[in-house]
Amino acid sequence: MIKAQQISLQEYLAEQVQSVEAVLDEWVPQENVEPSSIHKAMRYSLFAGGKRIRPVLAIAAARAVSDSPDGIEHATATLELIHTYSLIHDDLPALDNDDLRRGRPTCHKIFGEAMAILAGDALLTLAFEVLSRLKQINAERKIRLVEELSRAAGTVGGMIGGQVNDLEGERKRPTALLLESIHRAKTGALLRASVRMGAIYAGATKEQLAALSEYGEHVGLAFQIIDDVLDVEEPSESLGKTAGKDEAQQKITFPAVYGLERSREMAEEERLASHVALRMFDDRAERLRQIADFIVQRKA
What we know:
CATH architecture: Orthogonal Bundle
CATH class: Mainly Alpha
Helix content: 55-70%
Number of helices: 16
Radius of gyration: 18 Å
CATH topology: Farnesyl Diphosphate Synthase
Strand order of the largest sheet: 1-2
Distance between the termini: 29 Å
């Protein structure tokens, strides 16, 4: 295999995505396994062509700590299971009520609301089965990974808590305080956990974990800022989901609070801060720096 630093970022991302998808294919039952209806729905959403940015971040963080953290792809695949479950549920009529995700009809439009709910539940459940069955690390690290993922997906400062704030914040006056309470939890928590899980898996020191956590904070915020900006600037065809929904639903977003120009400036500030957070690392963290740049400069 060509060394990671000798290939472009796009080639590196494609290589990591391929390895993560191979692991996901291994863990998620095939469509012909009974009950086939639930497995079809799970795989429909899971293999819809996402960027896999969360597991890629985890892998890059692990390799900033250790040269060869064997089996890291299995641990990081759990992030994608959780992320996809959240998208399936977020698209439901009771929440964001969206018909398009990653350029094709959402799970509930194809399989019905009941099966979509169960598909999300099944992906969530599977994530923790995968963590419990990891073979390359000891029980202590497994427990730390379970704690990290469950807290990031939970209600206090986690993804579900952020989704609640987002739902209840619709049509309220947009403020910086409410915006932060939504997005540091809804999107930022799982992105930060991605970096931390990779570091924990690889046996990071306390200092390394702190530095990578700081990086994850900045990258998570940058990701959400750009997501909000793209919802305003890009068409549905580019985004792979319905554009302009944030404004239509009067959601509290960075452009709603700060405007587009200032939002772009804030994303750039977070990008630069993420680089600074990695100052204790040498070239081993170069991929993390490149991923931060990619997150801010992306168009979809």
